[in-house]
Amino acid sequence: MSVSRAALPFSWSVDFHALFPQKKLCHLSAGLAAFPSAQVSVGKAWLEPGQESRLDFHEAFLYDFSTLLQQLLAFFLLQSEMISFWGYPSEEYDVVTEDGYILQLNRIPHGRENTGCQGVRPVALLQHGLLAEGSTWLTNLANSSLGFILADAGYDVWIGNSRGNTWSRRHQVLTTTQDEFWAFSFDEMARYDLPAMISFIEQKTGQKQLYYIGHSQGTTIGFIAFSTMPQLAQKIKVFLALSPVTTVIFSRSPFTKLSFFSDSGIKVGLHYVLYSQNGFHSDCEIFCGVFQELFGTREFLPHTALGEHILTRFCVCSKVCKHILATVFGFNWKNTNMSRFDVYMGHMPAGSSVQNIIHWVQVGAPFYDVQHMEVPTAVWNGGRDCLADPRDTAILLPQVKNLVHHKLIPHWNHMDFLLGLDATEVLYREILDIMKKHP
């Protein structure tokens, strides 16, 4: 969906204090402030750091309605439209994997200011994490989103979407209503999705090598693919791993503690012990049965209209809800632009398969040999990361044979790598430096 700016020539001024009670104004102002060019004066809670409020919630505030309406559209845009919205060239492709899944692959071929530059641009492939989608690299303002920063720095940016998320829910034969469609985990993402995307990019650009940047599960599939497929690994200039996850032994996120169900006395679990034909099941079997009884056998936490409404309208003003999001997904609200909360929640969670979640909570010691990977690798991890615990990263680092850079960011949680207010200064500039050192 797109709307021409010329189609909205009018300008209205509205007294929102007269229309909405103070509590509703809290929700409304969060949504309005999510769009940077809307001429809005709101309370201090929704302004970016360093800005001062001209009005508070007890006073009326005015804004240009036509500008706001145009910006509100960004909340509903597809990934390709999000890119175009900020003035960048946008391309979108379908990539078919060897096992028949159809993945969406987005491209920003160049930045806003370097359209006239000739010659080949180095390629960067960005891969999102668990329960996320490609727009996680684009949801901040253009000057603080890694996808746009790389494009402006002269890179040909490609953004992947793993099977099962919002934008990769198609198959040549199967449908999402079939259990077979959801019979995958991050193993298949590494074995099929990543090679298919890299091969497509190579054919499209003619370039034999690219930079691979992964976050969370995006690093997991990178470590698996590059350590088990040497020919694929040769196509990677540098592997930039943000908040890498190869084990979840020490992870504090409730997601990785779901296996606790296998030791609890909840009724569903007892059913699998007391009423099985053999009279006994292993902890793993009990857990899998409990999890599937609770969540089914297909998709897990897909993006829905109801979920989006709850997250964008309730959580923005609920300390309890925001605490849950911080605990489960690793948000660091003190280092997050809360004026864009609606935008973040408008694109996540993006779903995965129940089988993938089950596979994740069963991960103990590394199940593949990272030492076989020859790819130059740079690693950044957070000291307060609830998903990629520093102790798990400490297990990984000695196994990385060609570690060219490592940095621990003490105050960062899991989502700071994508949404942190200080991400540009703390991380993105270093990423650009590392990439320049490995042309």
TrEMBL record:
Which SUPFAM superfamilies does the entry mention? Answer: alpha/beta-Hydrolases (SSF53474)
Q: Where is the active site?
A: S216, D385, H414
Q: Which GO terms describe its molecular function?
A: hydrolase activity, acting on ester bonds
Keywords for the protein's UniProt record, in alphabetical order: Glycoprotein, Hydrolase, Lipid degradation, Lipid metabolism, Signal
Q: Which InterPro entries match?
A: AB_hydrolase_fold, AB_hydrolase_lipase, Lipase_euk
Segments forming domain Partial AB-hydrolase lipase: 80-141
Q: Which GO terms describe its biological process?
A: lipid catabolic process
Q: Which PANTHER family match?
A: LYSOSOMAL ACID LIPASE-RELATED
Q: What family classification does the UniProt entry report for this protein?
A: Belongs to the AB hydrolase superfamily. Lipase family.
User: By what name is this protein known?
Assistant: Lipase
Species of provenance: Lonchura striata
Upper lineage is: Eukaryota, Metazoa, Chordata, Craniata, Vertebrata
